[in-house]
Amino acid sequence: MKPPPFDYHAPRDLGSALSALAEAGTDGKVLAGGQSLIPMLNMRLAAPGHLIDINRLAGLDTVTAGPDGVRVGALARHSRVERSAEVAAAQPLLRQALRQVAHPVIRNRGTVVGSLVHADPAAELPAVLALLGGSVRLARAGERERDVAAGEFFTGPLESAAEPGDLAVSAFFPASPPRSGTAFRELARRHGDYALAGVAAVVSLGEAGEVVRARVACIGVGAVPIVVDVTSAGRPGDWAAAARAVQDRVEPEDDIHATAGYRRHLVGVLAERALGEAAREAADA
Amino acid sequence: MHEITLTVNGVVRQARVPARRLLSDCLRHDLGLTGTHVGCEHGVCGCCTILLDGEPVRSCLTFAVTVDGREITTVEGLAGPDGALSPVQRAFAECHGLQCGFCTPGFLCTATALLRENPAPTEEEVLEGISGNLCRCTGYQNIVKSVHRAAELIAEEP
Amino acid sequence: MTTRMFGEPVLRREDPRLLTGQGRYLDDLGPRALAAAFVRSPHASARIRDIDVSGALDVEGLVAVYTWEDLPEQVGAPLPLLIPHPALTHGRTAYPLARDLVRHVGEPVVMVVARDRYLAEDACALIRVDYEVLKPVVGVEEAAHGGLLVHADVPGNAGAHLVQEVPSAAGLGAGEAIGRAPHELSFRLDIERSASMPLEGRGVYARWDADDRSLRVYSSTQTSTSVRMAIAARLGLPLPSVEVIAPDVGGGFGVKIVHPWPEEVLVPWAAILLGQEVKWTEDRREHFISAAHERGQVHFVRVGFDDEGRVLGLDVTILHDHGAYTPYGIIVPIITATQLLGPYRIGAYRVEFTSIYTNTVQVTPYRGAGRPQAVFCMERTMDHIAAHLGLDRTAVRAANLIQPDEFPYDQGLIFQDGRPLIYDSGDYPESLRMIKELIGWDGFPAVRAAAEAQGRRLGIGIGCYVEGTGVGPYEGGHVQVTSDGRVHVSTGLTSQGQGHETAFAQIAAAELGVPLERISVVTGDTRRFGYAVGTFASRAAVMSGNAIALACRKVRAKALRIAADALEADPGDLEISEGVVRVAGSPGASIPLATVATLANPLRYAFDEQAARATQFAATPAMDRPPVAEGEEPGLEGRDYYSPIRSTFASGMHAAIVETDPETAEIKILRYAVVHDCGKLINPMIVEGQIHGGVAQGVGGALYERMVYDSHGQLLNASFMDFLMPYATEIPHVETAHLETPSPLNPLGIKGAGEAGVIPVSAVIASAIEDAEGIVIDRMPISPSDLFHLRATR
Does residue C291 sit at the B interface (CB-CB below 8 Å)? Predict the structure, then answer.
């Protein structure tokens, strides 16, 4: 289990990174945290001809949190975003989700943006981005940076809108409106494993405590994070109907760890729990 | 081939490595520091955990070239300069926190960093802290005990 | 106090080395060795049409490529069938490199040697093997139908078939006893595949010394002595020219007792041929698909019993999935068949197993070695009886227990060592009393009711086992006291984390009266001790522990003879403590063991002051006898062997409380309790550690780990991502209590403890889940998804 050979590029500025990527084309791969890519290389499931290591690029390890939301640079590690009090204040769902990403040691190295580009449908962060309606900023040699909305970014299992030659330089996670609450519930076989199913929820309440908006994003039960708007089905304190609506929308499959039927059942339970928790948090907000 | 310089356990070391050289292999085979073990090479077992600028990371999921210029601590660097075992190492001996010893370097590095950040962890925090390291021998009970004991030993230090 | 060493929780002497990165595991050795890698079959069943290695030849750093055709006759011959048995009528083993056919994914086909492992893997990737893919045989029941064959000359895929029968006291066979019993039940049980999965894989490193034509091989093995004999035989080398050393070994759990692995033959062969050091370090994927698995059985049970739940007749038919080959014979199903009876007196027993070939990785012992399956069967049977009669599950067990005054108790079966299965000692009723007290069995209904009031679902379960430990044929020990007063102990069997350097030193300290710090222990190094069997079957402490004690007693007797001469005292008046021989009751008259060791070796040459005391003019010798008296040998050393008449039987009982989530079907172990009896404890800290580790592996086997093959014979979860070995977050705290029923069979009164923890766990967890859910649990492991679907059948 040793990686195959590749040409290594360690650019020190964005321009040279982008030209290296452009030159490599479909044969190029970006190395950031490497926590998903290097296992695949070690197992020789991937064999890119060129690896563009962006770890030396200045200015990409930024995390900025403001009233609008959180922008995370391509080299910001999970652990840094997880620990940031500003991030937690601006968008608490990030920390709630990050605590369930693999194990602490992996989070020290893995990057938030890398996880988005990897686009694993069982991963937490794509669901967070999709739920919040965030975006990924892509850079490309000779072109202006462009923001791709989460809805268009995740195109399939391990497939995203980032094309060969693109470098995802940052991602933006919008803040939730006032009187909102968030929650992330998942069930994994072992603590830290990819979830059998998981649900991120955000609930916004009106002045009278009525549900103004309620949405969930589900992981492990479809080709991409499945976002379901359950505003009309949601009642504060009773999310059973909303959970059924979620169950109707997901498209789980069998694997060696769980059946599709179990996953569908589980996603309902988790949706009800996550929505309830988010609503309680919204009421306290 | 790439010339890289790493500061390992306080000593500046140089190596000439291909880009694909995993940090684990670089430490073990290029620098002769075989205390860092390799158990799965896909980042799950935690045997290869080392400290990169003080933070625990998987050396099997890191290319040596990527960390050129950085500071690394391996299990060989945990004891004091006089060879005295660190509190974490002492605690593992006292509490029978190891059997075959193969996973131990990863646990020691992980626990060392954990206690630096959180000198008095709760039971939950210890479990979460070591939750990414596999041990096939001990059943973890004495490892958890060792981490708590290490916290006590550190607190007792002058 | 040296004399109190035995039985004390002495801290481990291995640890300072292992805690500082100074351990030496296989891959830590031979930094300049060439690296071997293997092209392995991607198919479960295929015929090799052609191997084209030309693509690999351009790889820079490539040294050699070998296929089966390159191997000399003795090297290329099928690997040995290690444990023949008359019932194993169709034993089959693999070639070191596949010849014509591959029979499981992972079987080695081509060996590559290159400058390093990266390059060797590059070369492997460029070798083209043309396969004619055949339809594989997967699943033990499908295989038993025999439509497709794994080995063309093994009809029905049946490698072995064995029946053992024990009639009731009244002479009834099991069938008749069941037929006449007031109650009868029959059911089926399944246990899936798992594996030892040590964190260090296998590995071999060979150094050929062309100058003195000797071979030194390091292997991450559980038996260095037998690997040595196998290598010498295969490579046609004189045995004294081959040495095999097991360095620090990163866990074994059974898989490393199998030998010689193809790599253990091929790596030394290549090292000699190339005249260079060669090393192979197994990676994780290789370990999954080309080492060995275990568990994997289906049981069909018929039981007859009376109104109190006493078993009057038991008939069990076992299908054992043996994978593609049987290098380790039929030890696993034999153990299942014979250890199934546990601590119970069963009226009449009939057990039949068929060992079935499938196109999967071979099955050889994994910690517990057939016992977890056996205990799952017997304990599920006990729970079925209790449920049928409406009795408390512990009452049914109590009604069947062998009583303390019935030992030695002959179960009437032939055990895995070919010797009668006779329990030597135990106190099973006391064990049951202790486990009920420890887990709070009688108070559990109140606990359950309180939880129920909060909407929580709890269940309690129990499992009992008896484990034959310390199987023969023998182990030996050598003890040498040198003139510096140090004691050097060696034994041939190997260590994989059991703390032998500590436990064996404790035995020597207690026997010799020498401080622990002066004692060093070497295991698994044929340069130090050439005769041994290996470390498996919870036998190391019993076998080598007793052998070392006996060797120490020889040394002690000799030391006393020499000291008596020197002190002009009667040997019977002497005692040894703190490394000094003293005349009891006269404090002035003493002589250090170091001096005794010096005097034990009459010298001509004085290489230091101490040695001068033993030279020929140093003292007035007795002129009427030679310097080395008749019947004596120079030196203060002794060697002895322990060869038991039969195994000694440890026992234990576990109980657990589990919680199942009514919605998500998550299964959580809230409490886990163990009562354990392994006779006298050498080091209770180490024994506890063995139990914790065993229980953790048992929890893995009950709730997380299984090897999943698809219908093409592909192992779907050959990684730590998907083969779910538990982390700290999955393992409960284990509460332990010890009962010490010494074994009457050996001088130290000890029994084995290495495997015990793992044995009853699946049975206990199944029992507890069944209790929580009211659903029959007849298949393990069980996942939340499984439980969810079982609930739907209720």
Answer: no
pLDDT at C4: 67
* Residue C708 contacts A where some CB pair is shorter than 8 Å: yes
| pLDDT band per the 50, 70, 90 thresholds, residue C606 | confident
Here the CATH number for the domain that contains residue B15 is 3.10.20.30
> Would B143 be classed as within a structural domain?
yes
pLDDT at C588: 81
Reported confidence tier of residue C623, pLDDT bands at 50, 70, 90: confident
- The partner residue sitting opposite A6, judged by closest CB among B19, B57, B133, is B19
- The boundaries of the domain holding residue C447 are 162-195+292-471+645-792
Q: Where are the beta strands (DSSP E) in C389-456?
A: 409-414, 420-423
Stretch 22-81 of chain B: residues touching chain A, C-beta under 8 Å: 22, 25, 41-43, 46, 49, 52, 55-58, 60-63, 65-66
Mutate which of A78, A103, A190 to disrupt the B interface (most B C-beta within 10 Å)?
A103
Q: pLDDT at residue C1 above 60? A: no
Half-sphere exposure in the Cβ direction for C676 (13 Å, CA) = 30
Strands (E), chain A: 7-9, 28-31, 50-53, 63-66, 69-73, 135-140, 146-149, 154-156, 159-160, 166-174, 180-188, 195-205, 211-219, 226-229
Q: How many domains does chain B have?
A: 2
Instruction: Output the pTM of the full model.
Output: 0.97
| Phi, psi of C212, rounded to the nearest 5 degrees | -105, 15
A13 and A97, same domain (yes or no): no
* Confidence check on the interface: ipTM exceeds 0.90, yes or no: yes
Closest chain C C-alpha to B65 CA, distance in angstroms: 16
Q: Is the minimum CB–CB distance between B37 and chain C shorter than 8 Å?
A: yes
Distance from CA of A166 to the nearest CA of B (A): 21
State the total domains in chain A. Answer: 3
- Distance CA(B55)–CA(C30), nearest Å, equals 30
Contact at 8 Å (CB) between C332 and C320? yes
* Residue B53 Cα, gap to closest chain C Cα (Å): 19
Q: How far is it, in rounded angstroms, from Cα A3 to Cα B63?
A: 10
Quote the tokens at residue C780. 């393990």
Decide if C83 contacts C339 (C-beta within 8 A).
no
Give B-chain residues touching C11 at CB under 8 angstroms. 93-94, 96
Average model confidence (pLDDT) for chain C? 96
Whether A257 sits inside 8 A of C284 (CB atoms) is no
Alpha helices (H) in A177-254, listed in sequence order: 240-249
- Alpha carbon of A106: minimum distance to chain B alpha carbons (Å): 7
In terms of Cβ atoms closer than 10 Å to its own Cβ (0-12, 13-18, 19+), residue B70 is middle
Nearest of A257, A271, A109, A93 to residue A183 by alpha carbon: A93
What residue numbers bound the domain in which B60 lies? Answer: 2-77
Our CA-based measurement puts residue C167 at a distance from the nearest CA of chain B, in whole angstroms, of 41
Contacts of C251 in chain B (CB under 8 A): 99-100, 102, 136-137
- C229: CATH: 3.90.1170.50
**Preferred mutation among A2, A9, A38, A115 to probe B, highest tally of B CBs within 10 A:** A38
Which residue reads 């298949």 in tokens?
Answer: C779
Q: Which two tokens stand for residue C213?
A: 């034509």
Instruction: Answer yes or no: do C689 and B92 touch at CB < 8 A.
Output: no
Residue C130 three-state SS:
strand
Say if C32 is an interface residue toward chain B (CB within 8 Å).
Answer: no
* Interchain contact C114–A (C-beta under 8 A): no
How are beta strands A28-31 and A7-9 bridged, if at all?
Answer: unpaired
Q: How far apart are CA C364 and CA C256, in angstroms?
A: 10
Q: Is pLDDT at C621 greater than 80 in this prediction?
A: no
pLDDT at C227 over 70: yes
Residue B154 near residue B119, CB atoms below 8 Å = yes
